[in-house]
Design goal:
Elements: H1 2-49, H2 74-81, H3 83-93, H4 118-125, H5 129-132, H6 137-147, H7 161-185, H8 189-205, H9 212-234, H10 240-251, H11 255-278, H12 286-307, H13 337-340, H14 345-384, E1 413-416, E2 422-426, E3 449-452
């Protein structure tokens, strides 16, 4: 009996100790929830006093008439609201989408000096590309007209449908690129310029709503949009007035300003996601989400936003936040970032994604700047019969100001070549002068970022 009584005494004490520990744990969690919420709300008030905005509504554009909105053209409106309509449009366009088949012809790559192979496309389509594309003239004409509209307002509440729409826009971009280069190849530079305008209109519309996803889509589209510009310059197909018009379009693309806006929109999306979780199953650990929201917001404001300074126009890879290692699923659970830093796990996991985004933003701005200079150089060649010895000769007649290397803040490298052409380049992400050499696969982390034309025979 005494042993049994002793057992129950010990069991009772263990139970009371367990209850006490649970109670203490709940009190600690409650205290941390209150403290974390207070820290976040204090930071938010102070940041809003500095002009920062955290709610998604702040990034929604004022309502515009449907007839002025790119996304309200009948075709695109149907794609947004109807899954079947989206599938039908994609199926109609996929015959001309170079990503539709593994062995299909590609659309060239200006960065490595490769033009669109019009002969390969003619063989694939069974006829001249311009003739084959007449089968989808209604869709192309509607998208072309829509791209001239002054606004592109996409409902933020439907952001997931944006992915569905992007598939159609990406297909349309590839098709207009094919048609522009085909027209250029056949000497129809005026019509090719109309397609270039459409391409830039589509990529501009892709930047809405502001977020990292839409920013990366715009960046990818613009880099592709330069293909017909590059081919026209390489073949000397653009005249003076067309070159001026292309320069004006390029001058309107500022990826540092757009990048800053996209990052702020991305932060708002991240905070909205955390807020949604706070009202759900995270009730016992709200402090984790509050602290992560706080750390993520500070990371954006203190590290990411200053990195995209439109005034300095420099994106220095050396100034990037350190890249955090990815989570190793085979490593002990306590060795992974979340368990080491539960209050900053989102901040840590966001850094590699953002670093890659900065690299693409820097490349896109460099490509646009080099294309602008390329147009100015072609205008100089039309006037004087050859390219200038130095880029300074372009100012002020052909350029108001020479863009500099966005990586270093120093002048872009420029040299004339023995065959009468030139090589214009940035030192690229590795901040090393590779004398204008570009890696075979155009790896953005290696080699230079160059604008040059195929060598003449």
């Amino acid at each position: 009996m005494k042993k049994r009584s002793l057992f129950w005494k010990i069991a009772g004490r263990v139970f009371l100790a367990a209850v006490a520990l649970v109670a203490i744990g709940l009190l600690v969690i409650a205290e941390e929830n209150v403290r974390a919420k207070w820290l976040w709300e204090r930071y938010k008030r102070q940041a809003e006093a500095r002009g920062e905005r955290f709610d998604l509504a702040a990034f929604a554009s004022p309502a515009v008439p449907d007839e002025q909105n790119f996304y309200k053209t009948p075709l695109l409106k149907a794609v947004i609201t109807n899954t079947n309509a989206a599938a039908a449009v994609q199926k109609r366009l996929e015959r001309f989408d170079p990503w539709g088949g593994e062995n299909w012809p590609r659309l060239g790559k200006w960065a490595t000096g490769v033009s669109v192979d019009q002969k390969a496309w003619a063989e694939h389509l069974g006829s001249d590309p311009l003739q084959a594309l007449k089968a989808i003239d209604p869709e192309l004409e509607e998208i072309s007209q829509a791209s001239r509209r002054p606004f592109a307002q996409f409902p933020i509440s439907l952001e997931m449908r944006y992915l569905r729409l992007y598939l159609s826009l990406r297909q349309a971009t590839q098709i207009f690129l094919l048609r522009a280069t085909a027209r250029m190849d056949q000497g129809q530079s005026s019509l090719a310029l109309e397609d270039v305008k459409t391409l830039f209109g589509i990529s501009k519309a892709a930047s809405e709503p502001p977020s990292l996803m839409s920013l990366m889509m715009e960046v990818g589209m613009v880099c592709a949009d330069l293909q017909p510009v590059w081919e026209g310059l390489a073949a000397h197909r653009w005249d003076e007035s067309q070159l001026v018009e292309i320069q004006q379009m390029l001058a309107q693309r500022d990826f540092l300003d757009a990048g800053l806006r996209g990052m702020k929109g991305e932060r708002a999306f991240a905070i909205a996601a955390c807020t949604t979780q706070l009202s759900g199953y995270w009730r016992l650990a709200r402090n984790v989400l509050y602290q992560n929201t706080l750390a993520l917001s500070r990371c954006y404001e203190e590290q990411f936003f200053p990195f995209l300074d439109p005034a300095s126009r420099v994106i220095s890879p050396q100034a990037l936040p350190p890249v955090m290692p990815s989570i190793d699923e085979n490593a002990p659970i306590w060795s992974n970032p979340f368990w080491r830093h539960p209050y900053t796990c989102l901040f840590e996991l966001a850094i590699p994604v953002m670093n890659n985004g900065f690299k693409k933003i820097a490349y896109a701005q460099t490509a646009v700047d080099e294309a602008r200079i390329g147009c100015a150089l072609e205008r100089y060649r039309l006037a004087y019969g050859e390219y200038p010895e130095k880029l300074e000769a372009l100012v002020p007649r052909y350029l108001d100001l020479l863009p500099w290397d966005i990586i270093t803040g120093q002048p872009l490298h420029y040299k004339r070549t023995a065959d009468g052409l030139f090589c214009l380049y940035s030192v690229g992400w590795n901040v090393t002068d590779d004398h204008g050499e570009v890696t075979e696969g155009c790896d953005l982390a290696q080699g230079d970022w160059a604008w040059r034309y195929p060598a003449r025979p």
